[in-house]
Amino acid sequence: MWDKTKLHTLHCSLLGKGDGSTCCHCYQLYAIIKVLLDWVSHTLSGCRTNKLNLERDIEQKLWSFLDNVLHSKALQILLKEKKTVSLRFTIAQAINDCIAASCTHQGLRDDISTVLSCCQGILSTPTLSYVYTAKFELIVDLLSKLSILACQYLTSEKPITPLVFDLLQISFTQYIQIQRQQTNPNRVFSHVLSQLFQPCLLLRHALNTRSWNKEDDNRVRHQLSKDLRVKAEAVLQMGLFQFELLPSYIEELLPEKDQTEKKKGSLKTLLTPIGSMLVKLRDCSFFDTRIYTSVVNNSIPLLYKLFLESYCKDDNQLTCFYMLVRLYECLQSTVIPEQEDFSVSSKGSVPFFALEQMLNLVLNHDVYSVAVDRIRHKEIQYNFYRKLSEMLVCNPCTSTPAWFRCLKTLILLNHMIVEPDLDDLVSCAWIDANISDMKVRKAQEILIGILLQTYAKLRQFSKLFKEVLIIICRPTIDELRAPVFSPQITKKLSELMLELPQSQILDIWDMILEKCHTFILHGIKGDSDLSLKLYSLASMLYCLMFNMKNMDNITPLPVLVRFQTLMKKMKDELINPLLKIIKDHCADTDSTDCLQKLCDSTLLLCYTWLEVNTVTSLNCSKYCSQLEKLTTPTDCPTEGWDYSLFLEDKDCWQKVVRLSVQSVGRYCLLLLCVQKMKYILMQNKSLSENELLTLQASAYFILHHEGNPQVTSANEPWSGNACTVNADCFAAAQWHLIMSNFVIIHPYLSAEDTHSVAETLVETLLSGPHAQANQDTEITLKTVSASLLQSDFFPEMHVTQSAFITSLIEKCAMSKHKDLSVTLNFFCSKNLPWHENALFLNKTAPQAFISAAVNKVNHDFSLCWAKLENASQNILLASRSRNCENLSERDKDDLISVIECISLLKPDALSRSDQSRCFLLLLSLAKIGCSPSTLGLKSACYKLLTYLITGKHSKSVLRLLYASDIFELVFSSLLATKWELSDIIVLRKEWPHFIETLRSFLESLIGLIAKRKSFLLNVEKMLAFVVRSIPDSESTDWNFYVGHLILVAFTTLCTIMTQCLKKQCSHEQHTETLSTLLNQAVMNMGTVIHLCLKVSDSSQILPSFFVSCITTLLKAELVILPLMDVAFDKVELKHIELYKRVCSQILKEIYYAESQTVFLKSASHYLAICVGVKEICMSQESLIILICTSLKKLFMGPWVNFKIIQSVSVDLIELITHMTKSCSDEEFVLMMKYVLQWLEVNNLWKQNYKEPFAGIILLKLLLSCPLSGERIKTFWCTAPQITTVLVTLCKESCKERLLLPTIIVPILEALALLLRHGESYLTNPHHVTLSYSILLTVPLDHLKAEDYYSIFLGVHEVLFSILQYHSKSMLKAVPSFLSCFFRLVISVMHEGRQKGDKGNEKVRAPESEVVLQCAQLVERMYTHIAAKTEDFTVFSAFIVSQYVNELQKVTLQPVVKKHLTEGIFNILALCIDRDIKFLNASLQMGVREVFKELYQDYIHCRKNQGEEKYAA
Fold first, then answer.
1. How many domains is the chain partitioned into structurally?
2. Taking a C-beta distance cutoff of 8 angstroms, is the pair 694, 701 a contact?
3. Domain endpoint, select from 955, 979, 1001
4. What would the pLDDT profile of 854-895 be if each residue is shown by its tens digit?
5. Measured distance CA(720)–CA(488) in Å, rounded
6. DSSP three-state, residue 479
């Protein structure tokens, strides 16, 4: 035996700790490893078979020793040298036994990890894994034990580590490889069924149901778990459902009467696979009793899925159906008996979920064919599904979404399956279902949507609604039913009714009226149940009548006559009798609740009838309105609630109003009031005094019947359906009604009511989200108010808009900030007419009233303007006093909310006074507070001020304040702010955005006065103020924030003055004054920049900001130089050293500008100007070449990608343009050499991908620049070489998918540009046709959506460039051109094929918008090809045949097919009769049918849309 010292030395050697340098040592090591591996294997095997009795600790150390050997560097070295190292087969069995022992151990053993590591080492080493792979039984046994062990880990509460799962993944991979090599399918089936079937199902269930937590390994959770599920399913599919076993399945599944359907097979090989599987599945001893039901429920759909994927082809549908039957029987025998009540049990959803999955598989794999089942199999499938339908309907489980989904799938299979149970289905799943859970409700709505869609397609809508009406009229257990039509069902109904014949909707309408007449009216008095039923029928009628197609002048006369009859019948036989019942009621004897519900129904019916009558009267001149014989509007009553203008008398409506205390009734009263206003206004004549009073009373009633909507936390969203209004959502419904009809209401409101509406608008907009609302279907107070402000009508409501601004100012005036409150109180008075037309609330008022009011208006408006002047002076005085009073966080948030409300207004729609008020308000808000925490508030104010200045009355503010005063006011408050006390991290994030916002505002402000006479005076005052504000560098007031603010002021002034100097060269006096001012600004600005660079820390400098400031300074100096009275050759730039230093710094640091596109833009702009300045260029050895070198470094940066280059492309093009204009011919030649050098393909071979990228980008930039003279010749002389290089580069890049966005897409764009600009220069057709090799090489499959579109667009643009600019070269290689284009056609057809759920028969858009865009490009290319009539006439038949051949293989998404069809129609227009005959004769049978259908569509479209559309 070895002593401990030798063992330790050996152990170190094995671990690679010794020198191992000599050959002798390597040989000794090899011998020792062989011996030790054999010895350890033998010893551990003996321990497991009890031949050796070793202590547990020693056995563990032996496993550790084996693990160290297997993972040692020494072993790896030997294996690399191809030395033969072997293990005993018994070690594999020993490992399996250890894992099995750990599985049966109570709790997971800690020492198993060493054994697992050994197993991993063996399986990961090809020369050692034979101990498992050579014996199929061992790998099967290992996989079984590992699966059970993994399940124990997954069900424990301990954190998941990757060891077991990594080993399981390796084992699965090894097993699948071995399984594929097995030649005996029965043997494989037996092994999988006996040892892997249950463990794999259990493993899959454990992976699906594991509650993952933060401590679990992320790789296991996201990657390995998914991979293991896939591999487990693959093992089961390959083992249990092999093609060779199909005869056994057919023999077992098909009954004797279907013997003719059975496949022939050798009886010796036939098994009973289904029976064997189901026995294993029913064996509950293997699974924990707590999870047995769940495992079976998850496993049965899986087995059916695997079976269908393997065998559902070659007319095996009947076999697949019988498999479904057997699995369903298993589901019944194992799951359902364990539950006491199938429909009520908490686990009741489990069998429904399994059944739903199986039914979906039947649907998706076309297992059930109605015709084949009826003709060949005596409806055996239909009868089975009927039993399923009966079981589901007789055991309703409306708390489970899967129950609804099962019924939905049955309807999609064949509506006849559920039709015998239609009444029960409608009852339990729709009318009587009381559902509160959102998931269940969604499943219910999908089911009802499919039901409606099915019967709409069958044109049996009335049959379905007949059942619905019968169920509604049945006696109910509960007093209240849910609304028949939820918002989603209503939406679906409206879509379907547009496609239905109007006669069917009229049938349903007639049925409802008949039910009301025969069943409801005769006994409704005092019967609360009938009142509830009437309300359900009224709500149905409301939904139907509001969603049906409008009658118009092209409606068939019989339909219109029937519609008119039903309208009269509804009024005479339903509405009038109901009103009479209410009128005759006795409050003492009749049930109040019953009458209230009766009032709700009656009012809903009245409104519905009136609305439909009005709309039809407007749309259809043949329709005779039922209101023409009623009271004339001139004699209309003045009370808002009196609707005797339409129906009944005043006493009846008085009772109706008194009884309408519920939400629906109150809401319908308001709707009727709006109808009354509309009816009066539609009379084409001037309004009488009585009518005017009626309109005012109606407007007052709408606003005050229930008071203004109160903004409270109890307010809930409203669905938009009048039937669903309740106490919680009434405020939203009422506010929606007021706002949606405000156009006709607001002229008849008093000033007080207008201000009341404005206050409510403000309150709702400033309110927080009290309830979560679905933006598509639900309405809230806030969304209604925001919609009004964003509409095109609100700017026309001048008085309301003015009142709204007054309310906003009043809201701000409530702030605790004293100065702000004092200032705002000047111009927020409600008693003053802030709008010029404020007194003309009614445009139809008597002339005498208008004349008398004119003088008062003029006086009051003068008073308003005086108030504004006082306010502006107060703002100016307050800013000069520098009295700082800070705001609380809540006040700041409230003020920012107010600013957001102002931003909804349109500046052009504001009057002079309102524009000035908003401007003064924002100025007041911007100047409050000296704390840096108000930066967000200031930024919002200046951003909105910039927006306001775009309004047409923006100059009105200059009547109150000079531009220089505003400038001083802004900077006084900013310079007084204590920036040094700020939170540096937060401030630095917001500061760049604030600086940019401030600069935009100042440019807009000074732009207002640019053409005014006072421009020079204002600019002089501004400049003087800024100069005075420059603190000394030693002053405590100085910090880099102050420096930035002063630089913003100087930059803005310099920019404006520079622009004015360029425009005013003819005006000598102005030019002289401006140049003097600009010179003064340049001197001081240079000083401030030097101070900032000297005093500020480097981390405080904003690179992009400073570069743009210095750029402005340089531009200003360049403008001043020619205007100075000094000899030009003696003139020097004042800050030349600064410009040189900045230029050098940019060239050095541009490479490091990661995520700073703003800096890249400003740096490019600065360099572009520097290139043209001799003083800067002369100091550099060659500025052009230095810039090229820096750009190369930039483009090769690891953070630079194609998107970043695109975002700064405009600035880079400007830079390259200036470079090409300023460079010498030699420098341009050198630039072209750089391009060719960077594009060399050997860069790719060296894994240097960035250099070709830099070359392509520089080439694109050069192509985008205008060239002249010798440079054009130089460039186009190298163009053929560039084309060849691009072809080679593209072919090499296509081998590496990662290079698609970085190399291939830019190559395609560069090639398209080269071809477009080379129309006159690329005269050799060979250089053009070289492009085809690129287009045929680039991949178009298995790409990300973004990459796919980029490449598709690139190929399209290259083809378009060839077609448009090189048509002669294209004609010499038309087949190549068409081959490239047809690649696009095939690709878009493949990507745009239908992949979705077969149940969703609605026309859907493609899964990705990208495919649709690509289809549009293909359509465009077909159009371009058709435009070249003379070039492609010969090939038109070939193009069509290619298209239809590919079309026959796929079913396209409708929207994709639409674009492709439109495109190919253009090619069909080129085909002559001979081509059509040729295609009909030469195309194969299936393809020919596709072509005939296409050609018929083309002829149809040509007739309908005219010959011109597709004329070539």
1. 3
2. no
3. 1001
4. 555 555 667 877 888 888 888 888 877 766 667 778 888 888
5. 11
6. coil
